[in-house]
Amino acid sequence: MATSAKVGANMTGVQMSPKDTKSLLEAVEQIRPDVPGDSKAIKTERIVRNEEAERIGSVPVPGSAKGMLKTTFDMALGKSPEILIDKLGERLAFERNGVRLYDAMIAKAKALEGADSDLVQVLKHIRDEEFEHMNLVREAIETLGADPTAMTPCADVAGVKAMGVMQVLTDSRTNVAQGMGALLTIELEDNAAWELLIELAEAGGHPNIAKSFHKAKEQEDDHLVKIKTLVRRDLIVQIK
Ligand SMILES: [Fe+2]
Ligand SMILES: [Fe+2]
């Protein structure tokens, strides 16, 4: 991989100009924000807003359960099926997004490391598995009679969370090491999320779904090892 960091004319730190630092600190004391209040006021406002706010969304009743009595629906799908459906929706959104994130990283790696590089091959392999996982979750949602195209609340949140990672990967100025660091964030969550999902499916009375997820969890273990190793190996070689 190319060198991760480069020495250059970076003027952002205070050590670059002690004289300006002094006048900057004086200005902080003299010039007050034109909006009254401090961080305490922001906190208070946030508390009020949190208390007033509506939920971020809802879990739709499975299409096949429409017209069923609520109790029948519960008996067929477990005590609180909406929890599992919400988390399955989250996994679906995350894996779908994962494919897009890997696509962005593959483009970066092709440009900086070459289309035939080992890195591109590893990234393509993981990308294809993320795609498989997306379809696996879609099938599980359909098994429960729910709609995989519905955006559940946790799916919505998953999309928002991944926005920063997507920005890092699609920024053409970021290098391979920075992109791989962003993917490491994703894979750490990916791994923990599959572990939890298997546990939730078991606890919700869906052993078959839980069983069908084990292969995906093993592949996620492999993703995490691969990305961690690539990040570490690259930096250690450069620093020594
Ligand atoms: Fe994944
Ligand atoms: Fe993954």
UniProtKB/TrEMBL annotation:
InterPro entries per the UniProt record, alphabetical: Ferritin-like, Ferritin-like_diiron, Ferritin-like_SF
A Pfam family assignment: COQ7
Span of domain Ferritin-like diiron: 170-240
Record's protein name: Ferritin-like diiron domain-containing protein
Organism field: Pseudomonas saudiphocaensis
